[in-house]
Fold each of these.
Amino acid sequence: MQTQFSKEQYQRPEIQQADEILRKCVHCGFCTATCPTFVITGDERDSPRGRIWMMRDMLESDAPASQETSFHLDRCLTCLSCMTTCPSGVDYMHLVEIGRDYIHKTTKRPIIDRIFRHMLVLVLPRAGWFSLAMKTAKLATPFKAFLPVSIKALINSVPKKIKKLDPVGSQDIIYKAEGQTKKQVILLAGCAQRAIEPEINAATIRILNRIGVDVIVRKQAACCGSLAHHIDRPTEAQNSIKNVVQAWSQEIIENKIDAIIVNTSGCGTMLKDYAHLLKQDPELSDVAARISQLACDVTEFLANNPSLSFSRNVDLMVGYHSACSLQHGQQITQAPLMLLAKAGVQVALPKDPHLCCGSAGVYSILQPELSGQLKERKITTLNKLDVDLFVAGNIGCINQLSESKAPICHIVQLLDYLSGGPIPQSIEMLPAIQAAQ
Ligand code: SF4
Ligand code: SF4
């Protein structure tokens, strides 16, 4: 794609980066077919190619972003399916970051929207606050018909059953390996996931300890910053990122860590981008770059660990939902399937596995209509599978797909159970699980 930035514009690092990315796009349109928003709306402006075109025009103009451009960039899920498809290697992820940052700097959202986003960024990254907010939202359920669309979407996203807050992440602690320590890792305890499903961190720690891995958790490393990063809150995003980097810096500098384990794939994509996000920071850039090298999804780590064995033989057919942040953001497709095969279960994949379920961080709250259509589409394809349960590697997807015909849990919960851990609550009533007891 041709660009026409002036010499003055080209002095700005973000314009240089955008220019480099834009020039790679040859406008072939292959990405449109795999873009979930284009598949739903059929509008070129809701496709990667259309958005790239609009961002080029916006950045070249140096004028405040138009409402049209803001509207269609807001509708982008940042699922990165377009990056998997693109034959020219267009780095859409960093281009859309530049585009959103430009919109943030040149325009102002309506006051209600700003307050709502501020509330999300204040509450969701704090597991305790989020847990309390979900309980409050439950109380408001009978009145939701009278509430604004965004609040209604927020209430709709609250799980049916609110569980006790996950204690992992509430203190600095090392969970020691069973037997001799072979490796030492850091676990990102996370934020929203702790309020929604407390079993995931517990299962991750158990399975790692079982294969001789010490697991370090630091309280200060709570939210990875992705939530704020994706909804136009750069200051809060930077604060969260810096908190995480500082929390882990001692162990990283002392070179004591074999890996940084992430069990929410959206956060994994974010950690792997810390090197880029903090590259201008004179104090933290080195540690941030090391974090990006060490970060790995829990399935990536387990698939490369020969010590993992499975002691339970359960006849299960599992439907695997691949989260976008895992398959597109981190290009991890085989590790979860290899682990499930090694655990002795059969696996089925839904039609169009590359398409997003519509969860995408807080997209389901900010764009409830499109999110709802994507959710319905995904559940329809999942329900066509003849399976006992579904697994996924991202809490957002698990929550979004909880109305599917079979129960759903995190893949690490199933792997932990099959290698000797307790039965995940969500699947304890399955006949195959009961028969195996
Ligand atoms: S597939 Fe890549 S090169 Fe082709 S239009 Fe999409 S982003 Fe551009
Ligand atoms: S990130 Fe996803 S929604 Fe956004 S343009 Fe790419 S494929 Fe479409």
Amino acid sequence: MRLLDRWRVLCRQNPPIILWLCSVMSVVTDRINVLTYHAIADGPGPTNIPADTFRGQMLVLRECGYTAISLAEFAAWHAGEVNLAPRSVVITFDDGFASFAKHAFPELAANNWTATVFLPVAYLGTEESWLGADPVPRRLLTWDQVAELASAGIDFGSHSRTHRDLRRLGTDELRLELAGSRDEIEHRLKKTPLSFAPPYGRTNRHVREAIGELYRMSVGTRLQRAGRTCNLLDVPRIEMHYFRDLRRWRAYLEGRAEWFFLARRSLRGIRALAASAVGA
Ligand SMILES: [Zn+2]
């Protein structure tokens, strides 16, 4: 029997074994978990993670031997310029909520870990009011807080200016969202931001190309670990509200929760297909 046929038979007969092997390989080899958080708060919905849950997730990461690295280190690894410790993780926060300073930063600092916070720059110092905002609006960091956190080792990327669906903008508006936010962060922090996170994770090829003209990398919402061959303008991330259950989080990090991971990915794929079918 040819090798390929044997492989097909093995996959058909032993899907759990194959999945387990894949998960263990991805834990111990060249794939990085890039984590997504929004607010560290008690509110409802997937964009709020309570502070004690966040602390627990960080504790499990540490106990499993993980170390947080920056997106710049990730990009250097992606380019083949450096090697990383076997269990490296990138921690990101979308929307620049003020709860980052109160609840997330102290926990990160205690571990000597960094993170990247993506800022919708026009909203800094105010509260969210974009499409899909929480019913009880959450406050964003002020520029003073951003500067203080930057001097303490936190990295800041752009989340556009006004948190709109970039696919729906004309060329000039898109440029303003991308370049305007980059220039504002550069002006405030005296450092050019390396990375971008599209609002709602919504992009298309045109938007990604425009991002690529101004930023080294852009993060997305595909639920996968990020490998060295991933598109640096659509880096997959792990949405952390799926791992509020700390036992599940530990199991995932140890390669024992691949069924859950696969099920979530499949469900998201089905939802995306259904949405595109009705033109949402
Ligand atoms: Zn956002």
